[in-house]
Amino acid sequence: MTVRAGRGAADGNDGLSSLAASLGDSDRDRVVARSTRRVVMASLGVMQDQKAMRKRSRSLALAAFVVVLLVIGPLAWLVVDHFNSGGTWGDLNTEFGLWVCILCPALLAAALVAGWLRRR
After folding, report:
1. pTM beyond cutoff 0.85
2. Which residues contact 108 (CB under 8 A, 6 or more apart)?
3. What does R_g of the chain's alpha carbons equal in angstroms?
4. Is 71:65 a contact under the CB 8 Å cutoff?
5. For the segment 56-113, what is each residue's pLDDT rounded down to a tens digit?
6. Nearest Cα to 94, choosing from 118, 106, 78?
7. Which of 11, 48, 60, 98 has the most CB atoms lying inside 10 A of its own CB?
């Protein structure tokens, strides 16, 4: 009987020590999971902020393009109408209109390229 009691006591201690070891492992796993979750959530926030900035930049570029188109459109129409009605290249209105139609898109493109290069 003492042999059985001794074996039972030894088995009980092994079971308790393995249970304590597994509880210690689970505590470490919980700490690692908690810190991993924090890192993942922070990364998700950063990615969402970057996506919002890209959307904002795209919207601003589209708005600038529409504004320039609305400003240059009537002037381009005036230049084309002037040439259709028999105007010449030497007229002051035609030269001014052509300069504006060429210069404004070039300035817009330069500003967009400068902004793009500044971000890189």
Report:
1. no
2. 64, 65, 68
3. 37
4. no
5. 888 888 888 888 788 778 877 877 787 788 777 777 777 777 787 788 778 878 888 8
6. 78
7. 98
